[in-house]
Amino acid sequence: MILNYKFQNFMSFRENVEFSMLAPKTKVKNRFPNNYISSDIGIDVLKTAVIIGENAGGKSNFVRSLSYLQSFFLETEAVKAYRNIVNANNNHDFCPKKNTTLQSFNIEIFLERDTLYLYQLEIDFVGIVKEAFYFKNQAKNKYKKIFSMERKDYTIECENENQCTSSNKCHTQATISYLLNGPESENKIGESLEKAANKEKSLGLTITKFAMLGNEHAIAFTNWIKNDLCPETNMINYDIYKSMKGEEEDFRILHDERYLDIFRMIDHSIIDFKVDEEKPFSKTMIVRKKQDGSTFSRELSQDSNGVREFFAWAVQIFKVVYENKIVFADEMDRVLNPILSDKVISYICGKKHFGQFIFTTHNVLHLDLKNYMKEQIYFITKDIETLESELYSLADFPEIRYETTKIYEFYMKGILGGTSIE
């Protein structure tokens, strides 16, 4: 489960962004016993959160930042920042040396019910600037360092003498050296990494190398990033997106009888479905029951847009509840009515699990302190002059009390930010 996530200088976000899924330590959480899960090591973690904001405010960029971080673990190539994903206000020239390309990512997670991990990464257009990995077994304890890797020095050779007129004409070569520190730097793992780091070339992540060489903490964290973190962003309909990916785990879930209970939330006349093994997200037959008791079937591709998309999103909800996945859903409820959205959240909160569901939305009806704690509601807003996005929590507004009934009005008037009228 994610406890805290921070990043900076990614797309529309320039300044440091802080996102937390820790439940408040006050008695207010007693009003929402199903909204968080308690651990044996002294922390309470939220199951759900909603991020609200205007069109083009930066909601999708927030989710993409997690996909970007995850990509470094999925790929083995050199890790570095690219000009097109650095904040535009930090790009002043086609020459990367003249821009502010330093990006940082900091993620703290709770894993396997008894271990907390903290991972830090800083990169620029050259490569990794700093990487560090820590763990602890009690929330009150201090983190123990597993390793830290820091760049000592680098030199840049530029073929165009820093006079590039376009990004595709930039041809730089870097010679880099790193310094590895950690309790394991004296054993074979440390020796292998020292040799790799001092070959004066750009490297992939150190943590993945620790994992490949058998470090149990690195293996656990890397597997979590690769398999349990699910930042779902898409530029097309989600059902089409899922059909293009065709993941085997989706097929397995569709054959699980518990999936039907989730899918039926969109239409209780649905009593069954027959999965098409080749094209499950388009050719599957949906079986409904009429009032007279008779049944009829319809191909999923011929059903409503909402049913098609929810058929795909229900897979992600299944992963949260039954597989403890961490799903970031970008505008899942754009085709769902408010009642169904509430059903989804209630279903997730009503089950005991160690998954999390965080979603972005335009639906202001989620501004409801009867269903959410203030710590579960986030806003994203974009400055109309700088075009920079900002993320903040409703908990940052102490004047907003749980007895307040005008949160919707405050938001629509621009008092809470996150609206296009600012």
Briefly, what is this?
The chain is an alpha+beta fold.
Describe it.
It is a single chain. By secondary structure, the chain is of the alpha+beta class. It has ten helices and 18 strands. It has a seven-stranded antiparallel sheet. A hairpin with a 5-residue loop joins β13 (285-289) and β14. α3 (206-212) packs across α4 (216-228), α5 (238-245) packs across α8 (305-323) and α7 crosses α8. The radius of gyration is 23 Å and the shape is globular. The model has no long low-confidence stretch (mean pLDDT 85).
* Number of contiguous helices: 10
N-to-C series of helices and strands: EEEEEHEEEEEHHHEHHHEEEHEHEEEH
Rounded to an integer, what's the Rg over CA atoms? 23 Å
Largest sheet: 7 strands, antiparallel
Low-confidence stretches: none
Shape: globular
Give the percentage of residues in beta strands: 25-35%
- The helix content, as a percent range, equals 25-40%
Overall pLDDT metric: 85
Number of strands: 18
Widest sheet, order of strands: 2-1-6-7-8-9-10
Structural class: alpha+beta
**Kindly, what is the distance between the CA atoms of the first and last residues, rounded to a whole number of angstroms?**
34 Å
Q: What descriptive keywords fit this protein?
A:
single chain; 422 residues; alpha+beta; 6-stranded mixed sheet; 18 strands
What topology does this entry show?
Blueprint: E1 2-8, E2 17-20, E3 36-38, E4 44-46, E5 48-53, H1 59-74, E6 103-111, E7 115-123, E8 128-136, E9 144-158, E10 172-181, H2 188-197, H3 206-212, H4 216-228, E11 229-232, H5 238-245, H6 248-254, H7 257-263, E12 270-274, E13 285-289, E14 295-299, H8 305-323, E15 326-330, H9 338-350, E16 356-361, E17 377-382, E18 389-393, H10 407-412
Parallel strand pairs: 5-16, 5-17, 11-15, 15-16
Antiparallel strand pairs: 1-2, 1-6, 3-4, 6-7, 7-8, 8-9, 9-10, 12-13, 13-14, 17-18
Helix pairs in contact: 3-4, 5-8, 7-8
